[in-house]
Amino acid sequence: MDLLLPGIGLLIWTLLAFLIVFFILKKFAWGIIIKSLSEREQGITDALDTAKKVKAEMAQLKNENEALMAQAREERAQMLKEAKETKDKMINEAKEQAKVEAAKIVTDAQAAIQAQKMAALTDVKNQIGNMVIEISEKVIRKQLDNKTEQEKYIQQMAGELHQFGNQ
Fold first, then answer.
1. Would you give the DSSP letter of residue 25?
2. Which of 11, 130, 138, 154 has a Cα at 20 to 30 A from 29?
3. CA-CA distance, 61 to 124, in Å (whole number)?
4. Cβ atoms within 10 Å, residue 99
5. Is 161 exposed, middle or buried (0-12, 13-18, 19+ CB in 10 A)?
6. Distance spanning both ends of the chain, measured CA to CA
């Protein structure tokens, strides 16, 4: 049982060695250990504060990014709307211009037809006038003895004139 119970001398020497080691550690190592622990605690606190700041900045950047994306979507929608309006305006202008040009072409064609018609009528009138003059000359030149032969000749010339008009 002596092995289980230490002697008083051993206890005193052990206590004395412990106190000497304790005072030496307190004088030389305790300050350094406490300082290291304080610095570590401060470093951890600073890291946590920095992490909170970074998290707040990330949330703010996310909000700003979402706002920029919304603004970009609005600008894109506006640009698409303006492009569609411009396209529709250009199409309508082209249609109107085509209508104006078509109306001008039709008007010009009608005027040309009218001019050709008038020229043809004038030509026909001139030819009829010339034929009347020729017939009159022939009638005057021919010496007819009686009135029946004159009427027969006039009828023949009128038939020729009628045939010429049908051509």
1. I
2. 11
3. 93
4. 10
5. middle
6. 162
Which tokens hold the place of 149?
A: 């032969």
Look over the chain and give the mean of its residue pLDDT values, rounded to a whole number: 87
- The neighbour count for residue 30, using CB atoms within 10 Å, is 13
For residues 115 and 77, what is the distance between their CA atoms, to the nearest angstrom? 56
Two structure tokens written together for 148: 């029946």
Burial 104-126 (b: 16+ CB within 10 A, else e): eeeeeeeeeeeeeeeeeeeeeee
The rounded distance, in Å, linking the Cα atoms of 7 and 137 is: 182
| CA separation for the pair 56, 8 (Å, rounded) | 64
Cα separation, 22 vs 161, whole angstroms: 156
Per-residue pLDDT reduced to its tens digit, 94-122: 999 999 999 999 999 999 999 999 999 99
